[in-house]
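User: Hey, quick favor. My workstation is busy. Could you predict this chain's structure for me?
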Amino acid sequence: MQITLLGATGRVGREVMLRALADGHRVHALVRSADKLGLSHPQLTAIVGDAREEAALKQAVADSSVVISGLGTDGGDTLSACFPLLLAVMEQQEIHRLVTVGTAGILESRSEPGLLRYQSSESKRRSTRAAEEHHAVLRLLQASAELLNWTLVCPTYLPDGPYTGTYRTEQDYLPEGGLQITVGDTADFTYREAVGGAFFRCRVGLAE
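Assistant: No problem, here it is.
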């Protein structure tokens, strides 16, 4: 299978890339600099470009079966600029599977129904800028055509750490008492959803 990967140089994206290559998949990684991948592999193709540009996205997703995004907010509008173009390009090329990594802030609040966690007292962050970017992506996905089979992976606090396999998942909510989840476990779930999948057109909260 050919997988398109956005955000391959990020913490989660890199781990997803390594899992995909180890399983024998072809990976098209859209990156701003091929040198930042720090990896050469016969099944890996680095496509140098900007995820906010339609031409780069078209090249990256061509002939892929699934798109995985580990893009972060980058302190700017990377997500909200990329995703309208990405969804349009995927529709044009009839690619229907998308798994993207977000944040637990855009899960539903348990304590204040009707709000997302970042809008409620459950959030301890002073700035909501990053969550607002992820929320913009959520709105786009929820409004997308039924043919788009998307999963929005929403990990809680994400320290560096290896795969443990002991994490919990819950649709639309953060698992009760969840405080953190390792990068390795987040990458594992993201990759497994992309190549298999049990959650469709929904958010999934992740925590240990």
